[in-house]
Fold this protein.
Amino acid sequence: MAFFNFKKSLAGPGYVILNTIRVLNIICLLAVIAASLVMLVKTFIVSKFFFFDAVSHVITASLGTFLIISELPFFRGYYGRNWPLLSLSSGFVTLGSLMIIVGVSILGNLNKEATSQQSLGLPFWRIVISSGIITITFGVVNIFASYIFRNRSLGVTARMTRAYGAVAPQKVDDVLRAQSKHAQPRRRSFHLNRSDELPSYNTSPKSQMATSSPTAPRSGGLNISGPMSVDQSQFNRLPENEEMKKPDLAHHPALYGGRL
């Protein structure tokens, strides 16, 4: 219970702390973009296989730009629909992990000849190494902040705390409703009526006979008369004949079925 009250009391200060971390995240990612551009230029000058190194630097700079946009209060619907791990319904674990990967990638480039201290020069080399270090550092900070400023029992994530502060528990339902609305796929429903039914290629023999019969009416249904009344007394007026005598049932084969 004390831990729950402690977590609840962090919602107000967490609003200020997390927004400060947001500003520092954007600064780190801008440094990543600057370092990638510096290494991109030096790669064209020194490296023989400049194309592949250049593509890796462009991807790093693009990823930094993508993460900067996710930190800004824009395109929340797009990130909620296509990148839910970077939306309000998730914390900062994905963001921190990507920042650590980017920082490690930048520091790993310092082992190459094209991006060494001699090739870059001391000022540019300091930009590259400092961007890698601070990006890794704040990646770890984001991961810890994601667990510290969330309230799992109420469904409040660290991003909700950063966006709404102390009133984040009251905004959980609105956020989840908006996320589910963005996540619903746009489907078209087709309602077939009698005129829109698909044609059938399996016709019954009766329908074939009806269509092939020359006497079948072209329009309307068939007129079928009712059953005819039969006079049973007319069979009693028939003359008796030896040839038409009723057979003796005593000699019927069914009576000797077990003896045959």
